[in-house]
Design a protein that fits this description.
Elements: E1 8-17, E2 20-28, E3 34-38, E4 41-42, H1 52-67, H2 73-79
Antiparallel strand pairs: 1-2, 2-3, 3-4
Length: 82
């Protein structure tokens, strides 16, 4: 995650679920860049550095991942072989 080859450390824990860190922050001990942990996933992408089309795709992917219903008959045919 770090471009400077520093060590990534756990900087803060805001919430947990059992042994999982759900909200918090990682940080590079060399360049001090921080990476949020959101809903259990470290976020290292810098969406502000992407062009607007790529940023929109990245933002929408998260929504689609959470809402896509795999019970669709077409999904089964295309991805599961019927």
């Amino acid at each position: 995650m770090s471009l400077c080859a520093g060590t990534i450390i756990l900087a803060a824990v805001a919430s947990t679920e059992e042994a999982e860190i759900m909200e918090g922050q990682l940080a590079c001990d060399s360049c001090h860049r921080t990476f949020p942990i959101v809903r259990g996933v470290p976020r290292s992408a810098r969406l502000e550095k992407l062009d607007s089309g790529k940023a929109a795709t990245a933002e929408n992917f998260g929504w689609q991942w959470q809402h896509f219903m795999q019970s669709d008959e077409l999904y089964a045919d295309q991805f599961l072989g019927g």
